[in-house]
């Protein structure tokens, strides 16, 4: 158990503190998630050229490339020069206001050193496919070894086959039927794979199939981590989902309070109009 925990620590990204997703190998030999790396560069004033692209790798062929990520769209040099002369925007390899090409410096969160990525930025990095496969195999091993038992069976407990997010419990087949009787509200509960950590089912991004985490005020739509680093959202106002929810809820609450406060006045005016109509008909 201890060795497995030690191994799990080696498979965790130093930025997001979760298991690696599409890890990139940095020149200092440390690794970082693809999305995390692009976010770090954005925070340091570098506009990621095209987050839908993947790093160059001899193994990153169309068959191994993630289906949700497309090919790199390299901007034309003359267009970049025009943008830089006009003082508009940045791109990997250039800081805001820079006139000459600069190399991208990436602050490695593992060794606390500034790593030189060259002018191409993340485009010069290789995707660590070996580490990616190790993470996937580790996930499968954990799922197989950690059997989840039914929480409602009388001893001896049977292994759980279904989970319920609404009930926040795991069931065997018989217990699931027993606690979700036909014709009741619970019968509408959707079964999920059994788990010990139930969390509410979040909304998913229709484009990237990732859970949405932020809200773009400019587009007035929910966005996931991959949407955030797209060029289309570069100058947009993006806030966390919770902040946007609280702000919109407060606005709706005020609007609703105003409507309810003026309800009596409106009803009185309607009654007066109806009386006028009757008088006119007579």
Return the CATH topology of the largest domain: Herpes Virus-1
Query: What amount of the residues lies in strands?
Result: 5-15%
**Which homologous superfamily in CATH is the superfamily of the largest domain?**
Zinc/RING finger domain, C3HC4 (zinc finger)
Helix/strand class: alpha+beta
C-alpha end-to-end distance: 90 Å
Alpha-carbon Rg, integer:
27 Å
Overall shape: it is: flat
Biggest β-sheet strands, sense, barrel: 3 strands, antiparallel
Q: Which architecture of the largest domain does the CATH hierarchy give at level 2?
A: 2-Layer Sandwich
The tally of domains stands at 3
Order of helices and strands: HEEHHEEEHEEHEEEHEHH
State the CATH class of the largest domain: Alpha Beta
Count of separate DSSP helical elements: 8
Overall average pLDDT? 76
Weakly predicted, low-confidence segments: 48-100
Helix content: 25-40%
Q: Brief description of this entry?
A:
The protein has helices spanning 2-10, 34-43, 77-85, 129-145, 173-179, 225-228, 241-261, 263-281; strands at 23-25, 31-33, 105-107, 114-116, 126-127, 162-164, 169-171, 191-192, 214-216, 221-223, 238-240. With 282 residues, the protein is of the alpha+beta class. Residues 48-100 have low confidence and may be disordered.
């Amino acid at each position: 158990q201890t060795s497995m925990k030690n191994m799990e620590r080696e498979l965790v990204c130093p930025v997001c503190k979760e298991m690696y997703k599409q890890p990139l190998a940095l020149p200092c030999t440390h690794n970082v998630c693809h999305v995390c790396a692009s976010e770090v560069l954005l925070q340091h004033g570098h506009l990621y050229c095209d987050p839908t692209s993947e790093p160059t790798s001899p193994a990153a062929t169309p068959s191994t490339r993630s289906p949700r990520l497309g090919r790199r769209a390299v901007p034309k040099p003359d267009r970049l020069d025009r943008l830089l002369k006009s003082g508009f925007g940045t791109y990997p390899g250039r800081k805001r206001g820079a006139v000459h090409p600069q190399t991208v410096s990436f602050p490695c969160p593992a060794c606390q050193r500034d790593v030189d990525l060259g002018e191409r930025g993340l485009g010069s990095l290789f995707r660590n496919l070996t580490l990616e496969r190790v993470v996937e195999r580790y996930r499968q091993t954990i799922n197989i070894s950690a059997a989840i038992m039914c929480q409602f069976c009388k001893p001896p407990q049977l292994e759980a086959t279904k989970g319920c997010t609404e009930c926040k419990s795991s069931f065997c087949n018989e217990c699931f039927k027993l606690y979700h009787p036909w014709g009741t509200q619970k019968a509408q509960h959707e079964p999920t794979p059994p788990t010990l950590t139930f969390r509410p089912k979040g909304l998913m991004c229709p484009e990237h199939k990732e859970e949405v985490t932020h809200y773009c005020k400019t587009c007035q739509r929910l966005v996931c981590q991959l949407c955030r680093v797209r060029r289309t959202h570069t100058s947009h106002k993006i806030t966390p989902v919770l902040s946007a929810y609280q702000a919109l809820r407060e606005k709706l609450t005020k609007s609703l309070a105003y409507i309810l406060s003026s309800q009596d006045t409106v009803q009185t005016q309607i009654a007066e109009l109806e009386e006028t109509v009757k008088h006119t008909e007579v």
